Amino acid sequence: MSKVIDPEMLGDMRRFGDLDVSACFSCGTCTAICPLADNDATFPRRIIRLAQVGLKDELLSSKELWTCYHCGLCSDSCPQDADPGEFMAAARRYAVASYDRTGLARILYTRPAIGSVLAVVIAAFFAVFLYSGRGPQNTEEMEFFTFIPDNMIHWTGIAVMVLMAVAGVAGVVTMVRGVARRDGVTFTSLVSGRTALTRTGAALWSALGVESLGQTRYRRDCKDDEPVEPLYRRRWLIHAMAIWGFLGLMVATGLDWGLALIGVKETGTAIPIWYPSRLIGTIAGLMLIYGVMWFMINRATKYNRAASISTGSDWLLLILLMITGVSGFVIEAALYMPNPPSWGYWMFLFHVAIALELMLLLPFTKFAHAIYRPVALFFYSLAGKKVLQDA
Ligand code: SF4
Ligand code: SF4
């Protein structure tokens, strides 16, 4: 690992958050208070030290960046008001922008005005593109896919997913190369022999199942808002609702396409509430809206430490998620109305355009943590840290 010092790094990082760690004198109070420090006597102050001295490669290859859930306990107890919690959040934004080679993530994080214009342009592009292929609006029965052909949505979706995957994989490769080099992990060490495979499998399960899906450490260890907050407003629950809701909508969409493929129903047609794809989609949509709504309320009111500083990119993600969730229910309402309203068709076009934009921007907004955090947790588990032991 190179030890090249970048004297500009801390100044550059300040563009990603309201941080000032120059006063930190590495006293260790943040380490003592952090519920996720495990037995690591250097977390989170090691990352702060790397930024202070400009060790960029070391910072970007630190999996520990992603284990912090920004509870803010360390910031409340820091004797120097260095706000280590916000530093960690800003460092993650900086890492996302550094892993992304296109420069888009950096623009979205640091140039909110340009980012907002870009977001509108991308949504308008998708809307105009879909509109260009429109068919008639059936007034007898709501037929979304006669208005916007399902083939058009299908292939546009595939193209967007390919772009998203290329950008996401490129970022993950950059991250993995750094973390693996620093931790001494090679491909061979992951797959050679039964013991290695078992360890790799356990680390994968721990990162994806126990922590990312189960939210285990967030739920169990980050108790900073207990018993102050009622259960419905606790940070882990809001976070989990947003994740589970989003994944549930993915499952429901896949199921709907699957049922259409085997000829059980046509995509976009009315089905009873007990149909698996509709039932899962309805519950997941409500969960997503619930989580995103609280995120928005917390950020708008600067309710807690984690929500006290927001970037344009944070808001962009929440707005896109909220629009996708709410417009999905409006479409559903239109689908079940006795006389198909014309606005139902326009809402459908709007919904698809925003959903496509959401997917396209995944590797560039705060959404990117959904890719990078599980990767970091995998390495964290592999290193025998607490996540693995708890699995
Ligand atoms: S961030 Fe604050 S609490 Fe943590 S080591 Fe620095 S001065 Fe101490
Ligand atoms: S914000 Fe919370 S989880 Fe993150 S380093 Fe500080 S105390 Fe630990």
What does this structure look like?
- The protein contains 19 helices and no strands.
- It has 391 residues and is mostly helical.
- The chain has 2 domains: 91 residues, Fumarate Reductase Iron-sulfur Protein, Chain B, domain 2; 280 residues, no CATH class.
- The radius of gyration is 22 Å and the shape is globular.
- The C terminus is likely disordered.
- The structure holds iron/sulfur cluster (SF4) (2 copies).
- One iron/sulfur cluster binds next to helix 2, helix 5 and helix 6.
* Helical/strand content category: mainly alpha
- Hetero ligands: iron/sulfur cluster
Strand count, sense and barrel status of the largest sheet are: none
Please count the helical segments.
19
Span between termini: 31 Å
Overall geometry: globular
Helix-strand pattern: HHHHHHHHHHHHHHHHHHH
Stretches with pLDDT under 50, minimum 5 residues: 386-391
Number of domains: 2
**pLDDT average, as an integer?**
89
Beta strand count: 0
* Global Rg: 22 Å
